[in-house]
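go over both lines:
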Amino acid sequence: QVQLVESGGGLVQAGGSLRLSCAASGRTFSAYIMGWFRQAPGKEREFVAGIRWDGGSTHYTDSVKGRFTISRDNAKNTLYLQMNTLKPEDTAVYYCAAGHNSYTYWGQGTQVTVSS
């Protein structure tokens, strides 16, 4: 079992930055693929970014490429999402997820609101 707790959300103006963190506890953090998802009001949850267990490979949804950076620190059991040049359409609840071949474990989410 893995427990995930997100933090770092908040209210920011368009063009600003935020860094989300996801603290993991339980089984070996470094064995998992990790990812960030988001869900805006009235919309389905969507994939934002993912990272391989060793941090050697990352991928992003097109709408955040060049603005968001996913990273992980296996020594600290923590996943990060650096979000720059935020836009109002980035407003959503952001979720951290982990798994072996698919995303099995989920955090409770952290709200990100970008004002125009």
Summary: DSSP finds no helices and eleven strands in the chain.
